[in-house]
Each structure stands twice: as C-alpha cells, then as structure tokens.
Structure to design on (215 residues):
C-alpha cells in the first residue's frame, strides 16, 4: 500500500451519527480608549468653561464691593435728603372740644360724660364751672369719682382728692390740674386741655381756670 495516504487529524463519527456543534466563540475583550473620560467638577473648583463668579479674582471682588458700597451710600444719602424735605408730621387729636351748653349740667354734679374720651370731668357749682383733668398727679392713672364718698379715688395707689380736686390722701404729691373752660359765641362750653392750671402755683384764680355762670 502507498505511503502518501493522508491520515485524518480527527476521527470521523460513525456512520449515521450527527456531527457535533462547534464550540462558542470567546467573549470580546473590552476596548481600552487612550482618551480619558472628563472629570466632574468639584464644588470648590470652577469648570474649565465657567466665566462667572468662580472666575472672579480677589482684585475684581474688592473692586465690585467698593463700587457697591459707594452706590449704596449714594442711595441712602439721596433718600435721606428727600426725607428731610418732607418732615414727619404727627397727627394728634385736637385738644379743644365743645362740651354742650350750661343748661345741660346740674348744679353740684360731677359730669363724667367726657372722662373716657377726653379724660375730663366738668363740675358745676352755683357760681359756675370748672374742668378737672382726670389724670392722677402721682403716676398718671385715671381716678374714679365716688359719689357716695364725695371724692375722687385713684385705683392704682389709693390717692384721694376732694371734689374740688385738692389732694388729701395717698401718695399723690399735688392736686389735680384744671383745664381751660370758656363759652364761645354760641353759648357753648369749650374745653381746651392744652391750657392747664395748677393749684400749688396759684393758677386757679387765673382767667380760664373757672367759668362764672349763674344763668
């Protein structure tokens, strides 16, 4: 037999059997790129393309701060100048008011109609009228009129005043003050709280401290 017959490298399967499947190919190897991936910028480091505040240097910051301070000063000065041209006006309630006609008051009466709204008592006698300011001369509380005791009594510290307004008990140092009382051209009683009369200064005999009326 000749020697040039080629011997098969693998044995052939027996006749009638299926050919075995080829093995699966190996998985592909990961590709390594030579270009590095971009890094995420940190909070304290500006991105390369950020032209904003992160790029502000120390000199620029000081320059901006100086200009802002200067402009703020100019704005405040301008507002102050404009405010000076329009002075503040306090709108206080009027100190003068009308208190009706003399016939509306009974002789011997301490009228408390204007105690709460004006802090004024109007007292009528046979000879005329006087107006007491309802402010305790101790610490400024509002006394009460006690008809049964015929006196004014302060509820804060117990100061007491006669019907005339003279003090006689408690820590109050002096009598109640009187307000100016007059008649206008229409015959109405007018009280002016801005004009006050003090007993210890001898002012209860001055014009306006007492309204003489016998009608």
């Amino acid at each position: 037999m000749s020697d040039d017959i080629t011997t098969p490298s693998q044995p052939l399967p027996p006749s009638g059997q299926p050919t075995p499947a080829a093995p699966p190919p190996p998985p592909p190897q990961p590709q390594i790129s030579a270009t590095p991936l971009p890094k995420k910028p940190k909070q304290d480091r500006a991105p390369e393309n950020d032209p904003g505040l992160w790029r502000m240097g120390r000199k620029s910051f000081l320059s901006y701060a100086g200009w802002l301070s200067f402009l703020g000063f100019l704005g405040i000065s301008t507002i102050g100048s404009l405010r000076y041209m329009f002075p503040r006006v306090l709108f206080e309630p009027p100190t003068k008011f009308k208190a009706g006609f003399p016939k509306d008051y009974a002789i011997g009466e301490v009228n408390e109609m204007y105690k709460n709204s004006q802090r004024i008592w109007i007292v009528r006698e046979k000879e005329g009228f006087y107006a007491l300011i309802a402010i305790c001369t101790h610490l400024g509380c509002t006394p009460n009129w006690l008809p049964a005791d015929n006196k004014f009594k302060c509820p804060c510290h117990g100061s007491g005043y006669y019907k005339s307004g003279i003090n006689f008990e408690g820590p109050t140092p002096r009598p109640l003050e009187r307000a100016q009382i007059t008649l206008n051209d229409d015959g109405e009683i007018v009280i002016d709280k801005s004009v006050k009369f003090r007993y210890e200064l001898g002012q209860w005999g001055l014009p306006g401290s007492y309204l003489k009326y016998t009608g």
